[in-house]
Specification:
Layout lengths: L1 H16 L4 E5 L2 E5 L4 E5 H6 L1 H21 L3 H7 E7 L10 H15 E14 L2 E12 L12 E13 L2 E9 L1 H9 L1
Parallel strand pairs: 4-8
Antiparallel strand pairs: 1-2, 2-3, 5-6, 6-7, 7-8
Helix pairs in contact: 3-4
Length: 187
Amino acid sequence: MARRMERRGSSIQWIRRAGVRRAYVCNRVALMYTGSLYTLSSLHLIESGEAMSTVANKEIVRRFNVEVIQEGQREAFEALMATDFVNHSAPAGTPNGAESMWNTFKNILHPALTGLTVIIHDQAAEDDKVTTRKTIHGVHTGQLLGIASTGKAISIDVIDIVRLRDGQYVEHWGINNLPSVLAGLKA
Protein backbone atom coordinates (compact mmCIF):
# COMPACT_ATOMS: atom_id res chain seq x y z
CA MET A 1 0.00 0.00 0.00
CA ALA A 2 2.80 2.42 0.83
CA ARG A 3 4.45 1.83 -2.56
CA ARG A 4 1.16 2.41 -4.39
CA MET A 5 0.55 5.70 -2.56
CA GLU A 6 4.14 6.78 -3.13
CA ARG A 7 3.76 6.03 -6.84
CA ARG A 8 0.44 7.89 -6.96
CA GLY A 9 1.92 10.90 -5.17
CA SER A 10 4.81 10.98 -7.62
CA SER A 11 2.39 10.93 -10.56
CA ILE A 12 0.37 13.79 -9.10
CA GLN A 13 3.59 15.84 -8.78
CA TRP A 14 4.37 15.20 -12.47
CA ILE A 15 0.84 16.27 -13.35
CA ARG A 16 1.01 19.48 -11.30
CA ARG A 17 4.29 20.50 -12.94
CA ALA A 18 2.51 20.65 -16.30
CA GLY A 19 0.02 23.28 -15.14
CA VAL A 20 -2.82 20.86 -14.56
CA ARG A 21 -5.29 22.30 -12.06
CA ARG A 22 -6.96 19.07 -10.93
CA ALA A 23 -6.14 15.44 -11.49
CA TYR A 24 -7.78 12.17 -10.50
CA VAL A 25 -5.78 8.94 -10.63
CA CYS A 26 -7.32 5.47 -10.69
CA ASN A 27 -5.89 2.17 -12.00
CA ARG A 28 -2.84 3.84 -13.63
CA VAL A 29 -5.03 6.27 -15.61
CA ALA A 30 -5.21 9.99 -14.88
CA LEU A 31 -8.04 12.38 -15.66
CA MET A 32 -6.48 15.84 -15.78
CA TYR A 33 -8.19 19.25 -15.90
CA THR A 34 -6.22 22.27 -17.17
CA GLY A 35 -8.89 24.92 -16.77
CA SER A 36 -10.86 24.26 -19.93
CA LEU A 37 -9.97 20.77 -21.05
CA TYR A 38 -10.16 17.30 -19.54
CA THR A 39 -7.48 14.87 -20.70
CA LEU A 40 -7.14 11.12 -20.06
CA SER A 41 -3.68 9.60 -20.02
CA SER A 42 -1.90 6.56 -18.66
CA LEU A 43 0.48 7.16 -15.76
CA HIS A 44 3.26 5.53 -17.80
CA LEU A 45 3.06 8.37 -20.34
CA ILE A 46 2.75 10.99 -17.60
CA GLU A 47 5.75 9.74 -15.64
CA SER A 48 7.87 9.59 -18.81
CA GLY A 49 6.95 13.21 -19.55
CA GLU A 50 5.38 12.32 -22.90
CA ALA A 51 1.78 13.06 -21.91
CA MET A 52 2.80 16.08 -19.86
CA SER A 53 4.23 17.88 -22.86
CA THR A 54 1.08 17.29 -24.90
CA VAL A 55 -1.15 18.46 -22.04
CA ALA A 56 1.03 21.55 -21.56
CA ASN A 57 1.06 22.24 -25.31
CA LYS A 58 -2.74 22.01 -25.50
CA GLU A 59 -2.97 24.47 -22.62
CA ILE A 60 -0.65 26.92 -24.41
CA VAL A 61 -2.84 26.77 -27.54
CA ARG A 62 -5.99 27.17 -25.42
CA ARG A 63 -4.40 30.19 -23.73
CA PHE A 64 -3.51 31.71 -27.13
CA ASN A 65 -7.08 31.28 -28.34
CA VAL A 66 -8.58 32.93 -25.27
CA GLU A 67 -6.04 35.61 -24.36
CA VAL A 68 -4.83 36.57 -27.85
CA ILE A 69 -7.65 35.87 -30.32
CA GLN A 70 -10.65 36.41 -28.03
CA GLU A 71 -9.34 39.06 -25.64
CA GLY A 72 -6.75 40.76 -27.87
CA GLN A 73 -4.00 40.83 -25.21
CA ARG A 74 -0.78 42.05 -26.81
CA GLU A 75 1.34 40.94 -23.82
CA ALA A 76 0.09 37.36 -24.14
CA PHE A 77 0.75 37.45 -27.89
CA GLU A 78 4.35 38.53 -27.38
CA ALA A 79 4.89 35.89 -24.69
CA LEU A 80 3.47 33.07 -26.82
CA MET A 81 5.06 33.84 -30.21
CA ALA A 82 8.61 32.80 -31.11
CA THR A 83 10.68 35.41 -32.94
CA ASP A 84 11.18 32.99 -35.85
CA PHE A 85 7.45 32.15 -36.17
CA VAL A 86 6.16 31.24 -39.65
CA ASN A 87 2.49 31.21 -40.68
CA HIS A 88 2.31 28.71 -43.54
CA SER A 89 -1.33 29.70 -44.19
CA ALA A 90 -0.64 33.35 -45.00
CA PRO A 91 -1.84 34.27 -48.49
CA ALA A 92 0.89 34.16 -51.13
CA GLY A 93 2.83 37.39 -51.35
CA THR A 94 1.81 38.62 -47.88
CA PRO A 95 3.92 38.68 -44.70
CA ASN A 96 3.91 35.37 -42.83
CA GLY A 97 5.56 36.33 -39.54
CA ALA A 98 4.08 36.85 -36.10
CA GLU A 99 2.93 40.41 -36.78
CA SER A 100 0.76 39.23 -39.66
CA MET A 101 -1.14 37.04 -37.17
CA TRP A 102 -1.52 39.94 -34.75
CA ASN A 103 -2.78 42.14 -37.60
CA THR A 104 -5.50 39.59 -38.41
CA PHE A 105 -6.78 39.46 -34.84
CA LYS A 106 -6.38 43.10 -33.81
CA ASN A 107 -7.03 45.00 -37.04
CA ILE A 108 -9.42 42.73 -38.95
CA LEU A 109 -11.44 40.53 -36.58
CA HIS A 110 -11.76 42.69 -33.46
CA PRO A 111 -12.95 45.88 -35.21
CA ALA A 112 -15.47 43.86 -37.24
CA LEU A 113 -16.91 41.51 -34.61
CA THR A 114 -18.56 42.60 -31.39
CA GLY A 115 -18.53 40.01 -28.62
CA LEU A 116 -15.82 37.95 -30.29
CA THR A 117 -15.50 34.55 -28.64
CA VAL A 118 -13.52 31.41 -29.46
CA ILE A 119 -15.01 28.01 -28.72
CA ILE A 120 -12.60 25.07 -28.84
CA HIS A 121 -14.42 21.92 -29.89
CA ASP A 122 -11.53 19.46 -30.15
CA GLN A 123 -7.80 19.32 -29.61
CA ALA A 124 -5.30 16.60 -30.42
CA ALA A 125 -1.61 16.75 -29.64
CA GLU A 126 1.37 14.68 -30.63
CA ASP A 127 5.00 15.53 -30.00
CA ASP A 128 5.37 19.30 -30.51
CA LYS A 129 2.17 19.85 -32.55
CA VAL A 130 -1.39 20.65 -31.47
CA THR A 131 -4.38 20.45 -33.82
CA THR A 132 -7.43 22.45 -32.80
CA ARG A 133 -10.96 22.56 -34.23
CA LYS A 134 -12.65 25.75 -33.11
CA THR A 135 -15.27 28.35 -33.97
CA ILE A 136 -14.85 32.11 -33.75
CA HIS A 137 -18.20 33.78 -33.05
CA GLY A 138 -19.21 37.42 -33.08
CA VAL A 139 -21.73 39.94 -34.32
CA HIS A 140 -20.74 41.71 -37.55
CA THR A 141 -20.85 45.34 -36.38
CA GLY A 142 -17.85 46.76 -38.26
CA GLN A 143 -16.26 46.47 -41.68
CA LEU A 144 -14.93 42.96 -42.34
CA LEU A 145 -12.56 42.71 -45.30
CA GLY A 146 -14.47 45.35 -47.25
CA ILE A 147 -17.97 44.28 -46.20
CA ALA A 148 -19.94 46.91 -44.25
CA SER A 149 -21.60 46.00 -40.96
CA THR A 150 -24.67 43.77 -41.30
CA GLY A 151 -25.54 43.22 -37.65
CA LYS A 152 -25.61 39.45 -38.32
CA ALA A 153 -24.17 36.88 -35.95
CA ILE A 154 -21.38 35.02 -37.71
CA SER A 155 -19.33 31.92 -37.02
CA ILE A 156 -15.96 31.18 -38.57
CA ASP A 157 -15.00 27.52 -38.37
CA VAL A 158 -11.26 26.90 -38.11
CA ILE A 159 -8.95 23.90 -37.98
CA ASP A 160 -5.35 24.71 -37.29
CA ILE A 161 -2.10 22.98 -36.48
CA VAL A 162 0.49 24.73 -34.36
CA ARG A 163 4.05 23.59 -33.72
CA LEU A 164 5.42 24.73 -30.38
CA ARG A 165 8.93 25.10 -29.01
CA ASP A 166 9.69 26.12 -25.43
CA GLY A 167 6.07 27.13 -24.84
CA GLN A 168 5.81 29.37 -27.93
CA TYR A 169 4.23 29.19 -31.37
CA VAL A 170 6.88 28.42 -34.00
CA GLU A 171 4.75 27.36 -37.00
CA HIS A 172 1.08 27.50 -37.98
CA TRP A 173 -1.01 25.82 -40.68
CA GLY A 174 -4.74 26.42 -40.87
CA ILE A 175 -7.94 26.26 -42.86
CA ASN A 176 -11.19 28.11 -42.27
CA ASN A 177 -14.53 28.86 -43.86
CA LEU A 178 -14.09 32.66 -43.91
CA PRO A 179 -14.63 32.87 -47.70
CA SER A 180 -18.09 31.28 -47.38
CA VAL A 181 -18.89 33.47 -44.35
CA LEU A 182 -18.00 36.56 -46.39
CA ALA A 183 -20.13 35.34 -49.31
CA GLY A 184 -23.04 34.91 -46.90
CA LEU A 185 -22.64 38.47 -45.63
CA LYS A 186 -22.74 39.83 -49.19
CA ALA A 187 -25.96 37.97 -50.04
